C-alpha cells in the first residue's frame, strides 16, 4: 500500500478531480506532461562520435526543433534510410555506425537546413 507522501500528498480533490502530484494542478490543466519545443537556431547539426562508447561509432543528429514524438518519428525515418539501429535520447538522435553522409542527404530531402559538425 502506498503512503500519501510517496504519491506527493494530494491526489484527488472533489472540487477539481484528479490532481497532478508534481505541479498540484488539475490533470486537465497539467503542464508537466506536455512536451515543449526545444529552442535553437534552426540548423540541424550532424556529427560522428566514438568517444566513451567502447570504440563503437555513432552518428549524432542535434538541433532538430521537434517535440519528442516528432523526434522519434524522424529517428525512425533516419534509421530506415541508413539500414541501422539507433535511439533518441535527450533531444539527440543517435544512429549506430558512420552514416553522416546518408543522414545529411536524407535530412536535406526532408527540407532541413543541415551542417556537418565536428571533424
From TrEMBL:
Protein name as annotated: Translation initiation factor Sui1
Organism: Aquitalea aquatica
PANTHER family membership: DENSITY-REGULATED PROTEIN (PTHR12789:SF0), DENSITY-REGULATED PROTEIN HOMOLOG (PTHR12789)
Domain SUI1 residue range list: 45-111
Any one GO MF annotation of this record: mRNA binding
Pfam families the record matches: SUI1
GO biological process, one term: formation of translation preinitiation complex
Keywords per UniProt: Initiation factor, Protein biosynthesis, Translation regulation
Family as reported in the entry's similarity comment: Belongs to the SUI1 family.
Amino acid at each position: 500500500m502506498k503512503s500519501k507522501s510517496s504519491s506527493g500528498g494530494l491526489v484527488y480533490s472533489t472540487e477539481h478531480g484528479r490532481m497532478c502530484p508534481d505541479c498540484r494542478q488539475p490533470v486537465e490543466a497539467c503542464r508537466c506532461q506536455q512536451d515543449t519545443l526545444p529552442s535553437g537556431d534552426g540548423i540541424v547539426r550532424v556529427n560522428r562520435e566514438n568517444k566513451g562508447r567502447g570504440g563503437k561509432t555513432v552518428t549524432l543528429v542535434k538541433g532538430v526543433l521537434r517535440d519528442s514524438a516528432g523526434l522519434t518519428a524522424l529517428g525512425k525515418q533516419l534509421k530506415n534510410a541508413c539500414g541501422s539501429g539507433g535511439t533518441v535520447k535527450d533531444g539527440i538522435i543517435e544512429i549506430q555506425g558512420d552514416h553522416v553522409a546518408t543522414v545529411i542527404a536524407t535530412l536535406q530531402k526532408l527540407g532541413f537546413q543541415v551542417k556537418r559538425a565536428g571533424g
